[in-house]
């Protein structure tokens, strides 16, 4: 394929000691920051990265040691499971995440309570387990 770039990553073998594990973790964290979050934010001039909570963004951010904010979108009609968006900024810029989350809350309609709790008072006393 002419003109294309293929990146290959060689993961180290499973660490056999705590010292080796710390090195692998540092390698992974540095890679996820430099080649993931920071690279994306810098290349595209972004303050935050936003994506589905069940996507890759929270995993990459966790591996990089960067906090993930969440904003609600709603509840699944079939399972009542909540779903929303993950919001990530670079390390040390968490105020960008909070600023986005505040703007989201100010702009979007009020959140609905989980469907299981809507009529909780009508369900009678909680049973002892």
Describe the structure.
With 129 residues, this protein is α+β, with helices and mostly antiparallel strands. Helix content is 38%, strand content 14%. Helix 1 (18-44) crosses helix 2 (57-64). The chain starts with 17 loop residues before the first helix and ends in a 22-residue tail after the last helix.
Question: In a nutshell, what does this entry contain?
Answer:
This protein is α+β, with helices and mostly antiparallel strands. The chain has three helices and three strands; from the N terminus they run H-E-H-E-E-H.
Low-confidence stretches: 1-9
Rounded to an integer, what's the Rg over CA atoms?
Answer: 20 Å
Structural class of the secondary structure composition?
alpha+beta
Secondary-structure element order, as H and E? HEHEEH
Helix content: 25-40%
Q: Could you tell me the mean pLDDT?
A: 78
Measured distance between first and last alpha carbons: 63 Å
Beta-strand proportion: 5-15%
Strands ordered across the widest β-sheet: 1-3-2
Number of helices, where a helix is a run of at least 4 consecutive DSSP H or I residues? 3
Biggest sheet descriptor: 3 strands, antiparallel
Tally of strands = 3
Assign an overall shape. Answer: globular
